[in-house]
Amino acid sequence: MAVWVWPESQSFRDDGHLGGIPSSWRGTCVEGEKFDPATACNRKLIGARYYLAGFESEVGPLNTSGGAEYRSPRDRVGHGTHTASTAVGAVSPNASYAGGLGRGVARGGAPWSRLAVYKVCWFKDLTGRCSDADILAAFDDALRDGVHVISASLGSTPPLMPLFMTSTEIGAFHAMQLGVPAVFSAGNDGPDASMVQNVSPWVITVAASTIDRRFPTVITLGNNVSLVGESFNVNDMKMRLVESGSVFADGSCSFDQLTNGSRAAASGKIVLCFSTTTASSGVAALAVYAAAGAGLIFAETISRRSTQDNFLPTVHVDLRQGTRILDYIRGSSRPPTVRFSPSRTLVGKSPAPTVAYFSSRGPSSISPHILKPDVTAPGVNILAAWPPMSSPTVIPLDKRSVTWNFDSGTSMSCPHVSGIVAVVRAVHPTWSPAAIKSALMTTAYMYDDTSDVMLAGGTLKAADAFDVGAGHVDPLRALDPGLVYDAGARDHVLFLCGLGYTRYQIRQMVLPSPSLDTSCGGEGGGAAPPPEYDLNYPAIVLPRLNATVTVKRTVTNVGPRRDAVYRAAVVSPHGARAAVWPPALAFSPYRDTASYYVTVAPAKLSRGRYDFGEIVWSDGYHRVRTPLVVRVTTMPDTDTGVDVAAARAMDTPTSTQLQDS
Predict the structure, then answer these.
(1) What is the mean pLDDT of the chain?
(2) Where do the Subtilisin-like protease fibronectin type-III domain residues begin and end (predicted)?
C-alpha cells in the first residue's frame, strides 16, 4: 500500500524459482505512463494498480512534466521501491550504496513472496500526498485481489481523527475481518510522548530501531587532530573550514540568516553547524549550499546523532567533537582546514539495537488502554533498492543516481515486520491477524547486544513499552510462540463500544456481514460493553489505576506439546501490586485454550506516572511475555495534600472494582 515501484530493480526480478502465479490471485497489472504490464510485471511482481481520483479532486491535476511524477504505478521518489524490496525483495548479491558502502547480499524479509503494489500517494512539494478516498479504494481492491499481507508505510501525525473517520483504520478493519494482517509504521515524530500513529488494536504498529552497522568517517583537522564522525562520504576531500557564525547572521545554518557576505565567507569551504541552532542536517546542507559552501560538519546531541545522506558532503559528529572543532577554528593561527576521508562500513558496533530518536512514542492518544507501538524493528540506515532516476535525497539539486540507497524511518521498519508476517502466515496459514500479532509481541525482546536494556534514542534512558511496544521482533521465535492471544471482529466491535462509539459509527467501519453483530452492550437495558482493557490483547495497560482492577486474558496453546503446562512469573510495576490467577495453565489435546486473571492494585500515592512490569508464562521452553503498564492516579490533580481515602484504600483489602476508566 502506498507503494510506488521501479519494476526493473533486481529485487523484483523473476529468477525462475517461484513457479506459476497462484490460481487464487485475482489481481492485475494496470498499464500507465512508462509502465507496460507485459515487461514490468512477472511471477514476482504480480499486481500493480494506481489511484488518482481522490488526489486530483483534492489537490488538482497531477503534474507529470519533466518526469515530476508518473501517472502509473512507477516509482518517482524511491520510497515504495525501498519498502517493497525490504519486505519481499529477491536475493540480490553485491548490493551496495555508492562507493561500495554496505556491500553485501540484499534480500527482503520474505524473498520468495510475491508482490502487488497499490500506488495511493503522489509526489508533490517534495513529499508524498495521499487521499483517503484513494486509500480506501486500494484496500478494497487489494482484498478482492487476494493479498495475504498488507504493508502500509504511511500515517497521519496527531491529533488523530476518530478511528471510524480514518481511512487506514477502516481499511485495516476490513482486512482483519477477512483474515489479512495489516502492518503500519508508527510515525517519525519522536521522541515526544503520545505521537504514535496507526493506533487501532487490529493493526501491527512498528517503531524503528538501529542495527549494528555504522559508517565511520575520519575527519582530520589542520592541527593533525583526528576525530571520527559518521557519513556516507565516498570521496577524499580537503578544504578550508569555517564556523557557521562567520557565514550566517546569528550562527544558525538557515536560509533566513544568509547575509550579503555569506557567499564570500563560505565559498569552497566546509561549514561547521550545530543542531542546537539548526533544525536538521538537511536544512543546514541546503543553507550551506546557498552560501556556496562545499561541505558540512553537523554537530548534534549524542542521543540523536545519526548518519543522514545529503546532496552536500556531510559528516555528523556529536556536540563534544563539534566543540573541539569550534575551538580549533577559533584558536588557529592559520586558516583552519579539514580533511574528510572516505567512509568505511563497520559491522558489529555496539550497543544495538537502540530506539531511533525519531520513532514516535506512546501512549496512544486515542485509547491509552491499547499499547502502541506494538513492536520495533530495524529502521535506521536501511540499504534497499532504489530507482536510478531518483536521486538518493530526491532533492532537485541532487543529481546523483544509485540503484541501492540508505533510508531511515518507521517506513523502513514497517516492511521488515511485513516480511516476517508473510513468513509466519505461510507457516501458520490458519492463524488470525490477532494471533500473528500476538506471536510477534510475546516473543519480542527488550535487550541489546550487550545484554542490557535497549536505549531510547533522543533521551539516553532505558527503553520502555511506549518506545518499543513489547520489544524488538524476533523472527525465528515468532514462528513458535507457544501461546497466542486471539481476537476476532466481534471482540474489536466491543472494543469500539468501549470507546463510546455509536452503532452507526461502528457500522461505518465494518464490512457488512450477517454474521457480525455490531451492537453494543447496554442497548435496550442489556449489559454494558466491556472496558477497553478487556480486549484480548498481548499487553495490559491501565492508564488510570485508582482502585483494584481485574483484567481477563485468554491464551491458545499453539505449541508442539498439546499437554503443556505453563506457569506464570509476575514483575509488578513500581507502585502497584499485581497477581495472576491461576498461577498455572494446563492444556490437553481436548483443551487448547485457557483464561487467566490479573489483579492489579495501586500501592503508592501518585498523581500519575507510568510504570512498567510484565507477566511471563513459561513451559520450560517457550517464554510468553506480556507487558504490564500502569499509571497510578490515587491523588486528584487538584489536591494539595494527601488523599486520605486513597491512602486507606491501599492498606485495606478491597473488593474487585472495574474502576480503571
Answers:
(1) 93
(2) 534-630
pLDDT (tens digit, 9 = 90+) per residue, 334-365? Answer: 999 999 999 999 999 989 999 999 999 999 99
| Grid cell digits, residue 444 | 519480542
Distances 444 to 1, 91, 257, 447 between C-alpha atoms, Å: 25, 26, 47, 10
Architecture of domain 216-344: 3-Layer(bba) Sandwich (3.50)
Cβ 315 vs Cβ 219: under 8 Å:
yes
pLDDT at residue 642 is higher than 80: no
Kindly give the pairing relationship between strand 593-602 and strand 549-557. Answer: antiparallel
625 closest CA partner among 487, 488, 474: 474
Burial 408-438 (b: 16+ CB within 10 A, else e): bbbbbbbbbbbbbbbbbbeebeebbbbbbbb
- Calculate what percentage of the chain has a pLDDT beyond 90: 87
| Cis amide leading into 373 (omega within 30) | yes
The full set of domain ranges for the chain reads 10-211+355-474, 216-344, 488-535, 536-661
CB 174 within 8 A of CB 490: no
Residue partners of 295: CB distance under 8 A and separation at least 6: 237, 239, 269, 270, 271, 288, 312, 313, 314, 315, 340
Report the predicted TM-score, pTM, of the whole model to 2 decimal places: 0.94
Q: C-alpha grid cell for residue 163?
A: 478511528
Q: Which residues contact 101 (CB under 8 A, 6 or more apart)?
A: 215, 232, 234, 343, 345, 406
The pLDDT tens digits for 276-314 are 888 789 999 999 999 999 999 999 987 666 677 889 999
Residues 6+ apart with CB under 8 A from 164: 170, 496, 501, 505, 506, 508, 509
Q: Which CATH superfamily is domain 10-211+355-474 in?
A: Peptidase S8/S53 domain (3.40.50.200)
Beta-bridge partners for 628:
540, 613
The residue among 120, 77, 67, 97 whose CA lies nearest residue 395 is 77
Is residue 74's pLDDT more than 50?
yes
- Model confidence pLDDT, tens digit, residues 437-492: 999 999 999 999 999 999 999 888 999 999 999 999 999 999 999 999 999 999 99
What pLDDT was estimated at residue 638?
58
Q: Residue 378, preceding bond cis, omega within 30 degrees?
A: no
Q: What is the CATH number of domain 536-661?
A: 2.60.40.2310
Give CA 337 to chain center in angstroms: 40
Q: Which residues of 151-168 are buried (b: 16+ CB within 10 A; e: fewer)?
A: bbbbbeebebeebbebbb
pLDDT over threshold 90, residue 114: yes
CA distance 132 to 125: 19
